[in-house]
Amino acid sequence: MASPVLRSIHLYPVKSLGVQTSDEIAVEPWGLDGDRRWMLVDKAPRVITQRQQPFLARISAVPLPGGGIALSAPGRPPLRVEVPGPERLVDVELHRDTVTVAEAADEAHAWFSEILGSETRLVHLDDPARRRAVDPAYARPGDMVSFADGYPLLLTTTASLDALNALIAAGDRPHEGPLPMDRFRPNAVIDSTEAWVEDDWRRIAIGDVPFSVVKPCGRCVITTTDQRTAERGKEPLLTLARHRRVGNQLLFGQNLIPDGTGVIRVGDPVKILD
């Protein structure tokens, strides 16, 4: 088998909105440059994701120079949003964390509120170097993360997706497969490996950038959401529950923490360091 290589790079400028792809990107201590620096919250204020609002998959956010975003959604006029200033800082809930964030302009709140049919605010992670720490059970002191669920990057492999799709084809709902990789919302997709071999990785390098492989990714209902139509099915959770359950977690992919910074590029070799 050929040596592993980086097949594709994916980022999500607004947490839970549509994906953007890149041929090369800078790796920062808290994740890919521009990945999940924006997020939606409700009036609580608590994070909103595709778990509650699957239609978010159909909303696009394209990064702009300077950190802003260009928003578009079916049937809605586009909207440009600039990075807010420090005068708009508030605290919001992101899963078990309380995070200080900067609120976007009021027109962005109105844009999302009309689409989702409830009070919604768009917020920005103004200072990722000090706002949100990675779970200390899996990280070193000082490891930080953006608005990603818990870890700076998510890695998947094409071989494991092929294996999962074969299991889906042999299961109770073969008509739901094969599933595309976008169901799993990875940052880095690796080619030319054996299925599930990433379970045994502890440290890797993508090009010249080293990473710790800290924890398998437990999957949620978002993986059952078609990222193009926002419709939901039962797979892959049905099959993961049968074949990839560890405790109460259904596993696919691995969470990464950068051990350094640099640029990764599609086609970069992937070295298994440990």
Automatic annotation (TrEMBL):
Residues 127-273 form the MOSC domain. Pfam families: MOSC, MOSC_N. This is MOSC domain-containing protein.
